[in-house]
Design goal:
Mean pLDDT: 96
Strand order of the largest sheet: 1-4-5-6-7-8-9-10
Radius of gyration: 18 Å
CATH topology: TIM Barrel
Number of helices: 12
Order of helices and strands: EEEHEHEHEHEHHEHEHEHHHH
Shape: globular
Low-confidence stretches: none
CATH class: Alpha Beta
Structural class: alpha/beta
CATH superfamily: Aldolase class I
Strand content: 5-15%
CATH architecture: Alpha-Beta Barrel
Largest sheet: 8 strands, parallel, barrel
Distance between the termini: 35 Å
Length: 290
């Protein structure tokens, strides 16, 4: 259902508001370069500081701009189950292709709490659900055994696995089989995860070089593993630099340098240091995107 290159997009701001023109232009740029899907309002989209109205605006605008040419997986997660249900119902109403839900952060639920949270959201809607496990962000790790339990629920169809561990991805694939698609949530380990059976990626790097991510994925799928590995190694320095500071600070900085959006963040996020920005700009020049 969800295979290929999906892009976790930043939310452009201008003078404190969502910059709708920059958002539409960036979506168009990604579609023109062959990506398979767009993911608004995730971590990269600064969802934690969007109001309900802005959250809904960004999701609806992304779907409208995509016009069915690519799939849209809307970020609708929250550390509150009732809030997650509200946002996921909205995504279903505006006809998103799927909803991406983070494991509840800060609350630190146990495995049974995680299971009940996602089960409650899934039962409230019919839209396909993509789980999102990123313990480095949330402080809670969803175990493969819990993912396997959730895979028995019909509309829980995939997981964005962002631990960066091929072992975890392999366990999930072994436990769930074809009931759960694994998408890499970590650009640095996308290629290794493909080798153990992942179906795609929800990528930050693809914001900057979507065509290269698409080429790597197509090379792998066509059996040209050598070419895919070469592209992986080529992209590795860029992917590292895009996490030189807290995501999405580096990628939004890169896109600002490229003239694609303003270098504007919502507190508590703020611009990176001049030294790190210089490293980002140098890397972009080396990749020929400036």
């Amino acid at each position: 259902m969800f295979e290929g290159i999906y892009v976790a997009i930043p939310t452009p701001f201008k003078n404190g508001k969502v910059d709708t023109e920059a958002l539409k232009n960036h979506i168009e740029f990604l579609i023109e370069n062959g990506v398979d899907g767009i993911v608004p309002c995730g971590t990269t989209g600064e969802s934690a500081t969007l109001s309900y109205e802005e959250h809904e605006e960004v999701i609806a605008l992304t779907i409208e701009q995509a016009r069915g040419r690519v799939k849209v997986i809307a970020g609708t997660g929250s550390n509150s189950t009732s809030e997650a249900i509200r946002l996921t119902k909205f995504a279903e109403e505006v006809k998103a292709d799927g909803a991406l839900l983070i494991t509840p952060y800060y609350n630190k639920p146990n495995q049974e709490g995680l299971y009940r949270h996602f089960k409650a959201v899934a039962e409230a809607v019919s839209i396909p659900i993509v789980l999102y496990n990123v313990p480095g962000r949330t402080g809670v790790n969803m175990l493969p055994e819990t993912v396997a339990r959730l895979s028995e629920i019909d509309n829980i169809v995939a997981i964005k696995e962002a631990t960066g561990s091929t072992n975890v991805a392999t366990e999930i694939i072994n436990l769930c089989g074809d009931k759960m698609e694994v998408l890499s949530g970590d650009d640095l380990t996308f290629f290794p995860l493909l080798s153990v059976g992942a179906k795609g990626v929800i990528s930050v790097t693809a914001n900057v070089v979507p065509e290269k991510m698409v080429e790597m994925y197509k090379s792998f799928n066509s059996g040209d593993f050598k070419k895919a590995a070469e592209i992986h190694r080529e992209l590795y320095p860029l992917s590292k630099v895009l996490f030189i500071d807290t995501n999405p600070i580096p990628v939004k900085t890169a896109l600002a340098i490229m003239g694609r959006m303003e270098k504007e963040f919502r507190l508590p996020l703020c611009p990176t240091t001049p030294e790190k920005e210089a490293v980002i700009e140098k890397t972009l020049k080396e990749f020929g995107v400036l």
